[in-house]
Every structure is written in C-alpha cells, then in structure tokens.
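Hi all, a correction to my earlier message: I attached the wrong file for Hemerythrin-like domain-containing protein. Here's the right sequence:
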Amino acid sequence: MIDSSMIDSESDDTVDYGRLVWSDDLVLGIASIDEQHREWIALVQAFERAVTEGEPAEEMRRTLAAAIAYTESHFADEQRVMEEADYPFLDDHLAQHQLAWDRVHAFATGEVADEEVRNSLAEFLPQWLMLHINTADRQFARWLKGSAVPGTPVEPAGRVFGDIPV
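and the right structure:
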C-alpha cells in the first residue's frame, strides 16, 4: 500500500521516493533485516528533519554520523546473512552497497560544504534506501524464501538489474 502523500499529483501516479516512511510494503519477511530497515529509516528521517528544519550544522552532522554508523553495521549484517545462504547475486548486491557507501562516506568526511551535504544527501539517502529495499533486498528475500534453492545454478537474467554491469 502506497501512502497517497507519496504520489506526485503533477505526474501520473509516480512514487516520490523522497518521502521516506516505513510501511508494511517494505516488510521482506526476514525479521532481523526488517527490524534493521525500520531503525535505518528512523535514522535517515532524523537526518532529513535536521536538514529541512534548518538545524545547525553540528546537529546535521551528528544525525548523519549516526545514520552512517548504522549503515555500515547493517550492510555487514546483510552481507553475512547472504553469505550464509550462499546467495548467487551477492556480488551485485555488495556492488550496490558500495556505490551508496562511497557517496555517503564522501559527504561524511567533512570535506564537502554543509549546504551541499544538506541538498545532496537529503535527496539521495531516502531515494536510494527505498529503491534498494524494494528491488535488491526484495529479490534476496524472495530467493531466500524458496524462489531459488541455495547452491543451484541461476541465470544472469535473475539479477535485479540484469542489463546493468556492476
């Protein structure tokens, strides 16, 4: 179920991934990952609030640091679960994590002006997180629940973005 406030009324029912809200639609059915996603979304929302409410740079950086620390922990946990399950698309999934990590980490170093952090990450984080959960993480959950059996050969077409080299 998509919250009607997430629909851009100017377009034809396009989901606005800039509005990050936990809903049952994001549940993957893997309890540990679902709980981490809930917490992660709460941290990204805190960062978004700091940006949109014009909080001082210190508060914005504090909330960003918390989100980054959690991101690192979540990525490691998710990777462990996938490795234990012998997930055939693990390399693709990790490449997506690395792309997000590189972008977020670049902003967290303090080398980028606060205004650029405000503008770029407040858009990027929620959009990437919603898209990633709804594509790559969902693909893993379906696979884990029996769409494929660990250790069986899989076709490259089974990748979330089969036509995109990673």
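Sorry for the mix-up. The two ends are 31 Å apart (CA to CA).
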